[in-house]
Structure formats: structure tokens, C-alpha cells
Specification:
A 13-stranded antiparallel β-sheet has the order 10-9-8-7-6-5-4-17-16-15-14-13-12. Strands 1-2 form a two-stranded parallel ribbon. The chain is globular, with a radius of gyration of 18 Å. Strand 5 and strand 6 form a beta hairpin. The chain starts with a helix and ends with a helix. It has helices spanning 2-9, 142-145, 219-224, 269-279, and strands at residues 11-14, 18-19, 25-26, 34-44, 47-58, 62-71, 81-92, 95-107, 110-118, 124-129, 158-159, 168-173, 178-192, 199-213, 230-237, 242-252, 255-267. The chain is built from 4 helices and 17 strands. The protein has one domain (2-279). The longest helix is centred in the last third of the chain and has 11 residues, at 269-279. With 280 residues, it is mainly beta.
Length: 280
């Protein structure tokens, strides 16, 4: 099911997931670790449908990402579902390289787990619990998986100081599907999200999904392939050294979907170290 991955990964946890963490880190950073955590809500057709959290801890040469998305509002009366993702990796040549990605889903008590571990050449090895059924064969060739990003590392990309974080294509493999996410600069301006979780300057990018292999052509996927059906607002935080998504708008077959930051927390390197020490 592509929905949770795109929502948690691109829609901010993505979104879902598409989702999903989409933090943009600078090509150069100060020593130590800094972290950003954001709470999101998702409304579809004006009604609350989901809520979640994304957190990112960024080091000079490594990163650690976590996301959670759960059904909320009226839909929870019919579907009790939650998805979590985590990714850890390193920065090399100003580019993220995943080392491990894990996805856990619980839909009305049906639990599934997926993990990918990457070798030095960027080739992922997949593990599924429960194992895939014969009709769930992965239709993505090994060479198509190599040097791809997982759904939450996908928008964790370097940006040279002064440049905009749009205008890039991201190669993504979620363990079953291979697709590209294309970002293009739209405009700069100000945005105020729901509950005033963020209010200030932001860069708006248009977003397109380009399926490569292993993905069924549903009506939602076809809509995501159109240029003007999805937009993401990226806002500078941590003194402008990183960007995070503060709003994502997507047209869906059942109405417009809006993911907004409702609470944003930032921790400098010294604060992150203090939190880590206190947890021990």
C-alpha cells in the first residue's frame, strides 16, 4: 500500500508518510548534534484524518530520523491504524546515504514489519515480517534499488548556502516500489499553519511523483504525477541552517489534503547533548 509511505515520507512523516522528515541540511555544519521535532496534523476535505510527529537528529557526518503517523478524527471510528518509520545513515560528499530503514504498521491489529539494510555500495537488503506471499513479489530489479533513498531520508538533502532547496529529483525505494520525487521551485512568501504552529517565511515547491517500477497506477498515483497537484512549503529553522516542511497540500480523489505543522521544537547542539545525557 503506497499511501502510508508517501504520506509518511513525502507528506511528512512523509506523510506519512508522505510522510514524511524532509529536513534539508547545510552542505557544511558545525560540530556536534542538533535536533528538530515537529508535530503535524492531516486534514482531508476539511476533516481531521491523521496526526503524527517527525524528529531528526543531525550530526556532522550522520543522521537519525524517526516518524509516527496515526489515524485520527472521525476515520478512527472505522480504521485504527498507525505507522512508524526510522532511518539512520551518514553524510558523504554532502549527500545522505541510508544505512538502515525500518517500517512498522499496525492496522486494526494486523502488524507488519519491513527493514532494509544497506551495504557499502548502497544496495539494500530487505526483510519482511510476516514474509511476503507469492503474489507479493517485488518487481524492482537490483540495479534499480542501488543508491536510492528510503522514504524518510528522501528529502534529507544538502543545500548550498543561499540556494533554494527545490529544483531536484530524488530517487526513492521503499522496499517494494521504486519512484522519483521531483521538486521544482514555485515561489517564496509567508505562511501561517494550523494552530500557528509556524508563521513566517517559506519556500513553496511543486512536487511530482514519477513511478519507475513496482507501483500500481491508482487514481491517487496518477494525480501525483501531475505537476500542480502537490505543493510543499519549506521553512528555515535553526538559524537558517536547515529547512523543514511546514505545510504540504495534495489533491486526492476524495478531496484536498493538507498537512500542517502544529508544534515545532528546535534544539541546538548543546541542548541535544544535555537531553541525551539526561536520558541515560
Amino acid at each position: 500500500m503506497a499511501g502510508p509511505f508517501f504520506a509518511a515520507g513525502m507528506l511528512a512523516l512523509a506523510v506519512a508518510p508522505l510522510g514524511a522528515t524532509a529536513a534539508v541540511v547545510p552542505a557544511e555544519s558545525e560540530s556536534g548534534a542538533s535536533s528538530v521535532s515537529a508535530d503535524y496534523t492531516v486534514y482531508i476535505g476539511g476533516f481531521k484524518a491523521a496526526e503524527g510527529t517527525v524528529s531528526a537528529t543531525l550530526h556532522d557526518d550522520a543522521y537519525d530520523l524517526h516518524s509516527f503517523l496515526g489515524v485520527a478524527g472521525v476515520p478512527k471510528n472505522f480504521l485504527d491504524a498507525k505507522w512508524t518509520m526510522e532511518s539512520e545513515g551518514r553524510f558523504d560528499d554532502a549527500r545522505p546515504h541510508p544505512g538502515r530503514f525500518a517500517f512498522h504498521s499496525d492496522q486494526n491489529g494486523e502488524i507488519k514489519y519491513r527493514e532494509m539494510t544497506y551495504d557499502a555500495a548502497g544496495r539494500p537488503e530487505m526483510t519482511f515480517e510476516p514474509p511476503l506471499r507469492p503474489n507479493e513479489k517485488i518487481h524492482v530489479l537490483p540495479h534499480e534499488r542501488q543508491n536510492t533513498l528510503d522514504p524518510i531520508s528522501a528529502l534529507l538533502v544538502p543545500v548550498v548556502a543561499g540556494n533554494n532547496p527545490c529544483d531536484r529529483t530524488l530517487a526513492v525505494f521503499d522496499g517494494k516500489r521504486r519512484y522519483d520525487i521531483r521538486l521544482a521551485f514555485d515561489r517564496e512568501g509567508t505562511v501561517t499553519t494550523r494552530d500557528k504552529g509556524y508563521s513566517g517565511e517559506a519556500i513553496r515547491c511543486s512536487v511530482q511523483m514519477a513511478p519507475r517500477s513496482g507501483m500500481r497506477q491508482t487514481s491517487f498515483i496518477r494525480m501525483l504525477q501531475q505537476r500542480d497537484n502537490a505543493h510543499i512549503w519549506l521553512a528555515p529553522v535553526n538559524g537558517g541552517s536547515i529547512y523543514i516542511p511546514v505545510r504540504i497540500q495534495v489533491r486526492t480523489p476524495i478531496g484536498g489534503a493538507v498537512m500542517d505543522v502544529v508544534k515545532l521544537r528546535q534544539y541546538a547542539a548543546t541542548e541535544t547533548a544535555a537531553k541525551t545525557a539526561a536520558a541515560k
